[in-house]
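Memo to structure team: turn this sequence into structure tokens by end of day. - J.P.
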Amino acid sequence: MKTARKVVVLGTGRVGKAVALDLSQRYRVTAVDIERGASPQLEDAGVEVINGDATDHGVLAGLIGDADLVVNALPGHLGFDVLRNVIRCGKSIVDISFFSEDPFELDDLARSKGVVAVIDCGVAPGLSNMILGNRYRQMEISDFACYVGGLPRVRRWPYQYKAPFSPLDVIEEYTRPARLVEKGQVVVRPALSDLEHLDFDDIGTLEAFNTDGLRTLLRTVRIPNMREKTLRYPGHSEYISVLRETGFFSTEPVDVNGQRIAPLEMTARLLFPHWQLGENEEEYTVMRIVVEGGEKGEAVRYTYYLCDRFDRRTGLSSMARTTGFTCTAVASLVLEGRIPEAGMMPPELIGMDQGRFDYVVGHLKSRNVRLEMSREVLS
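Reply from structure team:
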């Protein structure tokens, strides 16, 4: 039976739709999108679908006026401003937009409004942060590494890649410098750097390269060595590096026969048809997390592994499932009053609470998203 609590989901792309569908099993849900119209799948689940511009503060205020919680599933370039406006309206929010701005700039605002803003609440960042937070309270961590990626099952030349979320957000990952921690110091490396290859029993060999995925961890925990790397099929990063270094991702306009054109605009037009994931195209999300350090007098290594695949029954992509269901687990924690703290709430702080962490993992397991864990003692 649904409760009387109401959730407004901003954005009905793949992940936003998965969030709305999942939450609709327990709560009243309204889904808002500026482009997409009625969705039979959402409407059959009892979700109210509204066309509206959530980037307009006045429109947004009207859309969320009676909401108990807001979920921000808009693209990253819109995310920060919308998050700020939701907080200004005095509404708690769970955010999966993965914007580039510093979320802690809004901490005082959220505290003054008495609302909680859970940010970066997807699979990675998100679940990956919760795993680290959970281990952080139980051992002395020396090294943390997260390898994660979403990939199509079928590899097609030349990019061997399809974007399970906004392609513009993918390009942002490839251009924004990556911040790592080495020997206790934050260091900056180019995205796509430090290429290595990893083997996965059920997938094969994938390449891994630096991306700026540590985000809030750079502020909230003190660990000597931390890095996050994105996984792709071997060869992908070389094609992307050529485009980036040639200037195809630049936002600075260039003159083409008297017309001023930003290279990124042209690149997007050309790339996106190749990168657009088909409606029922099968793909998978894979994540490996390695945590090393001292525990009860022993040097230990914890390895976490997740591999989720397209769900043929529901038509939901693995990225929508792993990101969306992590988000809905935390949304339920907020709605049930189990995250009462006001202010910015990065997911690692949720993971530091064992009860909250167990709830999220159990929520994912009930939806057949399984997280495996192994522990070994290092000699």
